[in-house]
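Dear colleagues,

As part of the handover before I leave the project, I'm documenting each prediction I ran so the next person doesn't have to rerun anything. This entry is a single chain, and its sequence is reproduced below.
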Amino acid sequence: MEQTILSEFNLDLATATIPQYIAIEGPIGIGKTTLAKRLAHSFNYEILLEDAQENPFLERFYQDRRSNALPTQLFFLFQRMRKLQELRQGDIFQQVRIADFLIEKDPLFAKITLDDDEYRLYQTVYDNIISDLPKPDLVVYLQAPTETLLDRVQLRGAPSERSIELSYLQQLNDAYTQFFYYYDDTPLLIVNTEAINLAKSERDYQNLVEYMLQISSGRHYYNPHPLQ
């Protein structure tokens, strides 16, 4: 792994902190999966991906959130739990190092989509199944203005996301902001992605990784300017 990093980045391994388990987070359209895949390739790590297209309720949820919120939310919760439980299984724990989700953020979706009775049911399920899960060594939270998120969602053109509204993305963006304002369970890197392209710009990607690998604790902000 070290040779892979040395050949791709300008790093001093004497000062670099190389996380063994990284979770990428952020709202819909922010580029979580894209960054997770690039990091997995750079570090020669296995990857743990959330697959939204497996959720049979998702397209119906975007068309009618009120009627389909609870089954959509519970499907995602059980899907994320199933994937994370693989981390406990011997050799698999040593292989899976990059995830494009953080299970602890799951309730923030529930809070903005479920009514009070549904949320109490969801919270009961959540509290009874989330325990003894491995914590990331680093969480990377990707941010962007809501209008930028909508542009990115429309650009990727996923059929299940065609009905997503700006108002819903704004709710999500606000919920993520509040969640990570209080989050202190692990080292955290907050990245403003408005002015960078982590999918297509090699320079933007390398600058972020070089910054990220200097983090060993605490909360950090990465806010690059367009010409950085």
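The CA atoms of residues 61 and 67 lie 7 Å apart. The longest strand covers residues 138-143.

All the best with the project,
I.
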